[in-house]
Predict the structure.
Amino acid sequence: MDASQESLQLEIKMSNIIRQLVDTLEEVWSLTNFNRNELTDYAKNLIFLDTRRGIIILCWVMFLMLGSFAILYHFLGYAKIYVYSFTILSLLSLHMSISARVIRETRVLYLLGTTMLVINGVGMVLLAHQSGGFNSALFASVVLLFLVMPLVPWGFREALLIVSLVYLVFTTSTLSVEGRFDPQNLWILQFVMMGASLTTLVVISRNIIVRRNDIKTQYELELAHDRMELLSLKDPLTGAWNRRFLEQNFSDIIAGYQNKKRPIYFAIIDINDFKPINDNFGHDYGDLVLKKLVKHFVKSFVGNEHLIRMGGDEFAVLMSSDDPKRILQQAADELRVDDELFSASRERQVNLSIGVIEIPLQKEVNLDQIYRFADSVMYQAKQKKKQDPSKSNIVITPME
């Protein structure tokens, strides 16, 4: 292999490494930005709750940790400035934990957490200036300040900003006054902060990747559950809602109609002579009739209707409309002249018997009650087919 080929392979490897780094950075840059808008919206809701929980935990950890330092320094005989400073910072953390409970935006929670960490950093720097140097207690406090950051589900951009701010607070304030601190301690401080910063960013990055994968998995699981739930409420043959859907949602649908103060109707639909249709033309044709019925009724709906297959060839419609007969008649007429059904059985057209009841707006009703009443009205419509079997019949009556 000559030098040019080796150079080309090296460039390809470097390009792949850079691309992987860029992809990784894009993935961890934000916890909530995904390629799918619905997944992004889902993630934002989850991250808001996680962030609030994380900020509260962070504040309580800082409260307990700083309060413990204040008590420890008191018993160890440190200067009172240490006890006072850590007591104030501890109480500030407690106050911010209370504030986090009333915040409603993730960005504001991030700002609150950032402010608390920076203020703690500033307080430790001022304490170092006041006492004239960094002792072991302050070094430990600085390290812990970095190590508690992963308690909050930051995105990488927020974590990088906070780490940079805390680092700059310590670096600029300690170097701004020449000769105030021992150079050896400053070098140790730089080493400690760099190590703690890198460790914190690595841990947060790993947490981001794990959390994003968890969000995707949880979203897909909930989506699959919703799909299964939806399938359990639909008739597999026709796609109409099934009886279970009606039983579960009847009260809510009625309440929604009543709130809009619009007329409410419940209809029972029965296919005339469906058994002879099945016997003479086969079950495949019977299934086609059921599918076509659903297709034409759904097509005629205007948005305030629910079509339910109650079982066999019986359907129900729960609707809110100013002209229910027009909607039902239009669907029934289109079913009668459906080209596909007519070509499959030229000597028979599909006719319906439909019983419709009007439900009083202020009346409290249950499903069994209106079903029995609508079923009796449907049988009145069925009696009319003897007079003219060549058309569908619709009977509408107010509920008693």
